[in-house]
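HOLO CASE FILE
Compound: fe (ii) ion
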Amino acid sequence: MTMTELPASLLRTLPGAYYTDPAIFTAEQERIFEQMWFCAVRGADVGPTGAFRTVRVGRESVLVTRNAAGQARAFLNICRHRGAQLCADETGSVKRTFRCTYHAWAYDLDGKLVAAPNLVKMPDIDRVAYGLSPVHVREWLGYVWVCLAETPPSFAATVQGACEERLGDLAAVERYGIEDLTVGRRIRYDVRANWKLIIENFMECYHCATIHPELVHVLPEFAGGFAAQYYVGHGAEFGPDVEGFTVDGSAGVTPIAGIDRDQDRRYFAVTIRPQVFLNLVPDHVILHRMYPLAADRTVVECDWLYRPEVVAEGRDLSRSVELFDRVNRQDFDACERCQPGMASRAYAAGGVLVPSEHHLAGFHDWLRTRLAG
Ligand code: FES
Ligand SMILES: [Fe+2]
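Model generated. C-alpha cells follow.
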C-alpha cells in the first residue's frame, strides 16, 4: 500500500508545514484572524468611560475603550499623523482623549481628531477622516468581540451560529447568562504550539483516557474517546458518584440560575472558530481565548466565570478551578510535544485521524477554504 492510499478508518491531517511555515501563519492572520470576529477582552476588564485595553489581533494592535455613553469602541492603536503607537500599555485610562506622545495629536473616545498643535491653521483637515481607524465591535456573553474586516461577516451566522450548530439552539448558551457572571479566576498560558494543534486537541477526546484522569473521573463517558462535540446538543454526563465539576468530583458552588434541567450535571463544549472555546457546567463557565503570536506560539487566556455573589462571598473556587487548570496543562503539554514533530520529515505529509477524530477533517477543510481566500 502506498502512502496516498488510506484504509477506510483513517483520514489524513494537514501536512506538517501548516503548523510551522511562517508564510502560512501570515496567511492565517490575514484571512482568518483579521477577517473574522475575534473575542478580544472581557467587557468588565475594559472598564468605564475612558478606560482602555490594547489587544493583539492578527498583526495589529487594537485599542478597546468605552465612550462617554459607555459603549465599547475599538480602533487600530496607531496615530494617523506619522504612525506612532498611540497607547503603549496593555491597560490604562484617559480622561477625555488619547494623546499621541510624539507630536500631540489627540483623539476623543469615539476616535475623532480633536486637537493637534496648529490644527486651527489647517481648517481643511477633516477631523473624522483623520480620526483613528475604527474597528467593528460587538458585545456578547460579556466579552468585546472585534472584527478588522471592512465588512464583517454576520455575527449571528458565525459566532452565534457556532453555538447553535453545536448545542441545537442559541437559547442553550444564553440560559447561562454569561454576561452577568464574574471572573473568579483567570490564568494565562503561554503555549509553545501552533493554534491549530490547540483547536484540534480541544475538538477530540481520543486523548482523554490517556492524559485526563481527573476529567474522565468526572465525565466517565469521555473514556470512550468520543468528544462531547461529536454529537449535536449532547453534553457529557457527570459520573454517578460525582457531585460537581471539580478536581475530585466534590460539590461545586451555587448553580447558575437559568439553566435547564437537561443542562444540570452535564458538561457542554463549543468551539467558536477561530479562537474561542466555551465550556458550560451547572455552576460555572470556562471560556478560553487564544491569541496566536507565531506559528509555534499561542497565548491562551482562560476565564473561570461564576455567579457574582459566589465570587463576592469569597467562596472556595480552588477545586473547581483546579480541574480545568489541570486539563489545560495536560492538553497544552501534549500540544507542545507535537509542535517539534510538525517540522519532522516523518510528518511532512501529515498524520492520520481515527474515526472518533474524523470530525477534525471538517476543521481542516474550513481552514483550507479560508486560506484559499
Ligand atoms: S505620530 Fe502621533 S502626533 Fe505625530
Ligand atoms: Fe484534552
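CASE NOTES: The chain has two domains: 37-152, 160-372. The domain at 160-372 is CATH 3.90.380.10 (Naphthalene 1,2-dioxygenase Alpha Subunit; Chain A, domain 1).
CLOSED: yes
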